[in-house]
Design goal:
Blueprint: H1 3-25, H2 30-37, E1 46-48, E2 54-56, E3 61-63, H3 67-77, H4 92-102, H5 109-118, H6 125-138, H7 143-146, E4 151-152, E5 160-161, E6 168-170
Parallel strand pairs: 1-6
Antiparallel strand pairs: 1-2, 2-3, 4-5
Helix pairs in contact: 3-4, 3-6
Length: 171
């Protein structure tokens, strides 16, 4: 950086600090100041089409997920109360039905084994699928908004999608 740019940068930072101090004197908290620097997107409606495609908001931005990952996502969408990973074997049949609907070429032995793996809490498959879901939403939304759309929860407790049910439209 050139000396002139460095001096300009120092001056700008000084002005920002001064303005922040003025805002604080007017009673604006530091948290409010910081959140105004990172405006958040409003929550958008999630649309699940008849053929299980996922779209976000009025502009219908499609969220692309592999069939098994999408089946896992839909399983959690259908259970807003959440699912504890240790209880996933109880959801194996429901996940198999969802996967069969999403995967038009049928369920092969390999596909059935993938379902077994993802519902086996002793394997890491479910965590991998959740990471892919998270990535799909974080790439199109601010991270603080995206967390409403992906599966999350604390270890040992139910994991769920925090999006309010009224923002989920099943066609």
């Amino acid at each position: 950086m050139h000396e002139k740019e460095s001096d300009e940068l120092k001056q700008l930072l000084k002005e920002v600090r001064s303005r922040m101090q003025q805002l604080k004197e007017y009673g604006v908290s530091e948290q409010e100041i910081l959140s105004s620097l990172h405006p958040t997107q409003p929550l958008q409606q999630l649309i699940v089409s008849r053929n299980y495609r996922l779209f976000l908001g009025d502009d219908c931005k499609e969220i692309h997920l592999e069939p098994l990952v999408k089946a896992v996502y839909l399983l959690f969408l259908k259970h807003p109360e959440g699912i504890n990973f240790k209880d996933l074997p109880d959801y194996r049949e429901e996940l198999t039905r969802l996967y069969d609907k999403i995967r038009p070429w049928g369920l092969t032995d390999r596909a059935l084994q993938s379902i077994e793996d993802v519902t086996n809490p002793m394997l890491n498959s479910i965590n991998e699928k959740c990471a892919r879901i998270r990535k799909a939403f974080v790439t199109v939304l601010d991270s603080n908004v995206a967390e409403y759309y992906y599966i999350k929860g604390t270890r040992g407790h139910s994991k769920r999608i925090a999006l309010p049910p009224e923002l989920i439209l099943w066609e």
